[in-house]
Specification:
The complex is a heterodimer.
Chain A (H helix, E strand, L loop, with lengths): L17 H20 L4 H39 L4 H28 L19
Chain B lengths: L16 E5 L4 E4 H20 L9 H21 L7 H18 L11 H23 L17 H45 L3 H6 L1 H37 L4
Antiparallel strand pairs in B: 1-2
Helix pairs in contact in B: 1-3, 2-3, 2-7, 3-7, 4-5, 4-7, 5-7
Classes of the chains: A mainly alpha, B mainly alpha.
């Protein structure tokens, strides 16, 4: 498939030259092909694991934003003596930020792993209505 | 700790002083020892394996080169070529977390990434670097990160606090994710391994029943190796994404 490379080619470790990055891509491609060829349950296995990873990531981003919002509100309350109002407001803001975090990471995960072209996804008009 | 038969899954995370310096409470702990070991192993491996610089790498050198190319690709994919000046930073973080996690999988070794103060310190390092570089590179324009483009002015009082909180939540989620994964994994492993001993105390039927947790322990060990590598990867990927935000602050 790929033409044999000249073994004398220079290999500099100081920069990711196009030659070596291309090599990594080819290795990754060949590895993926080999996995399919060996009949590994690669989509299921990897999909499963990355699904767990995705879940943990989204969950932690959501919770972290709420905690930070609550923390900021609580500290401001202590300083300004307005307990508990700022805490309540910032808790809501943190909730919104958590949703924002989740939406952002989900969008970015979708961009990183687009569905295969043959998959039966229902195209909606609202998918890319607002860029 | 009095009863040796009692399973104590938390004991493995205890910090103990090895050498204490003065009365200030500063001491060289087992956690610090394994951090030093981690750094030592990384440095020794990378230096020794790439010493020959052969054009056709042997296996040892190949591993170093693959690690290098893996992280280099990750950084340039998420932060572009401008982000490559942070490659040493991301590579150090990745190797530190990866080798630290892997050390934790060795029996009797201490896992320093299972302490939130360690992961939080790493996350704060990333956070401070991102903020500092963002302001140095972009000046006040870095604050545009908190003002999404195309938002009408009257909703800005609501949107900006949300964006600020979202930004501030990054070091928390970054550190909690790593620490929680490693901590939960080690506790699960210990609990299941403890079941084997406890069931074994019941005699023959107990040993028969202990087969189940034994299988689970083996499976979870494999899973933990995966989690250890994956969490190092996630940490490094998110770091390079945050660095990308510092370089290009507008969404």
């Amino acid at each position: 498939m790929t033409e044999p490379q000249d073994p004398k080619r220079s290999r500099r470790k100081t920069d990711a030259s196009p030659l070596t990055s291309d090599l990594a891509a080819r290795i990754a491609k060949a590895r993926g092909e080999r996995q399919v060829a060996e009949g590994h349950p690669s989509p299921a296995g990897r999909g499963n694991m990355s699904a767990m990873n995705r879940g943990i990531r989204l969950g932690s981003e959501f919770v972290a934003a709420i905690l930070v919002g609550w923390g900021i509100g609580y500290l401001l309350d202590q300083v300004l003596g307005t307990s508990p109002w700022l805490m309540l407001v910032m808790l809501m803001v943190g909730f919104a930020a958590g949703v924002l975090n989740v939406v952002r990471s989900a969008a970015q995960m979708n961009r990183a792993a687009p569905p295969p072209p043959a998959s039966d996804t229902v195209p909606d008009d609202d998918d890319d209505a607002e860029g | 700790m009095a009863d040796p038969n009692k399973v104590d899954p938390i004991h493995q995370f205890q910090i103990s002083n090895i050498v204490s310096f003065g009365d200030g409470g500063i001491s060289f702990t087992n956690s610090a020892l394994f951090m030093v070991l981690t750094v030592g192993v990384i440095a020794a491996y990378l230096i020794l394996s790439t010493q020959k610089r052969s054009l056709v790498p042997n296996r040892v050198q190949l591993v170093s080169e693959m690690l290098y190319e893996f992280v280099a690709k990750m950084v340039s994919d998420s932060a572009g070529t401008a982000g490559m000046k942070f490659f040493p930073f991301v590579f150090s973080l990745f190797m530190f977390v990866l080798v630290g996690n892997m050390f934790g999988m060795v029996p009797l070794f201490f896992t320093f990434t299972s302490h939130i103060i360690v992961t939080f310190a790493l996350a704060m390092l990333v956070f401070v670097v991102v903020i500092a570089y963002g302001f140095i590179k972009n000046g006040p324009k870095f604050l545009k990160l908190f003002v999404p483009s195309g938002v009408p002015g009257y909703v800005l009082p609501i949107v900006v606090p949300i964006e600020v909180v979202s930004f501030l939540s990054r070091p928390i989620s970054l550190s909690v994710r790593l620490f929680a994964n490693i901590l939960a994994g080690h506790i699960t492993l210990k609990v299941f391994a403890g079941f084997i001993v406890t069931l074994g105390g019941l005699g023959f039927l107990g040993w028969l029943g202990a087969l189940l947790p034994l299988v689970m322990t083996v499976a979870i060990t494999a899973l933990e190796f995966l989690v250890a590598a994956l969490q190092a990867y996630v940490f490094a990927v998110l770091t390079s994404m945050y660095i990308n935000d510092a370089i290009h602050p507008s969404h």
